[in-house]
TrEMBL record:
It comes from Devosia sediminis. InterPro entries: WH-like_DNA-bd_sf, WH_DNA-bd_sf. This is MarR family transcriptional regulator. It comes from the Bacteria.
Length: 160
């Protein structure tokens, strides 16, 4: 038996293995989710990066929920290495056409436009986030902010 035929034991901790399994399960889900988004018209151009679309959806939604809608210019700064401002604008155009985002002109500076999620995006987001929660739970991850704070405190104090 060669080294690469042997099962890798002890290479990853239990938590790391669970995180890897979660990533693999999530990639599988994302493949099916993307197909559904294209079929339902949420993503107009299937060849555009789903990663970029995910980033745009997440950033626009999070900033809106936090009460500070994002502008196209701000959004483009997240993509400096990954995509040009023109590519980001094309994604936004597709999302506006699909009814997942809308552009709202800033009343105090008419040159700026805010990107505001629609209820259609909220519906997609709830499905998407619930799937992430379900996949995490299937791998044994549990949302426990108190326990997470304890673990972070232990690590900060030099403990394992």
């Amino acid at each position: 038996m060669t080294d690469y035929d042997a099962p890798a034991t002890g290479v990853l901790s239990i938590e790391q293995r669970a995180a890897l399994d979660l990533d693999v399960a999530w990639l599988s889900y994302r493949t099916e989710f993307r197909k559904r988004m294209v079929q339902q018209g949420y993503l107009k151009h299937y060849w555009r990066s789903i990663f970029e679309a995910d980033m745009i959806f997440c950033l626009a939604a999070q900033r809106y929920i936090d009460g500070s809608p994002i502008t196209l210019k701000e959004l483009s700064t997240y993509f400096e290495v990954l995509a040009t401002p023109v590519t980001v604008k094309r994604h936004i155009d597709d999302m506006v056409a699909a009814g997942t985002l809308k552009r709202v002109t800033d009343e105090s500076d008419r040159r700026r436009q805010f990107l505001i999620p629609t209820e259609r995006l909220a519906d997609i987001g709830r499905q998407f986030l619930q799937a992430r929660v379900d996949h995490a739970l299937a791998q044994g991850f549990v949302f426990d902010p108190e326990r997470a704070a304890q673990i972070r405190a232990q690590k900060a104090a030099g403990g394992q």
